[in-house]
Write a structure and sequence with these properties.
83 residues, three-stranded parallel sheet
Amino acid sequence: MVFKGKQTLAKGTYLLKGWIYVANGSELTIEAGTVIKGDKATQASLIVEPDAKLIAQGMKDAPIVFTSAQPKGQRKPGDWGGL
C-alpha cells in the first residue's frame, strides 16, 4: 500500500501488514490515541520516503502507540520491521 497526497489515519487500532509507504512529496497524519500493531509474519514496516512527511503527535492522555501485533507477554524487539 502507498499513501499519496495528504491522508489522515483516524484515531483507532490498525494492523499493519507488509511494507506500507508514504510516497515522496506526500503527508500522512496519524491522530492522537491511535494504536498501530505491526504484523510479525509479514515484517510489517511503515516507510516514509524522502521528501514525505509523517505527522504523529500524540498527547499525554492519548499517545500514539506503535507495537507488535503479538499477544501481550509474547512481544519482542524485532517482531515487525518498524518505522
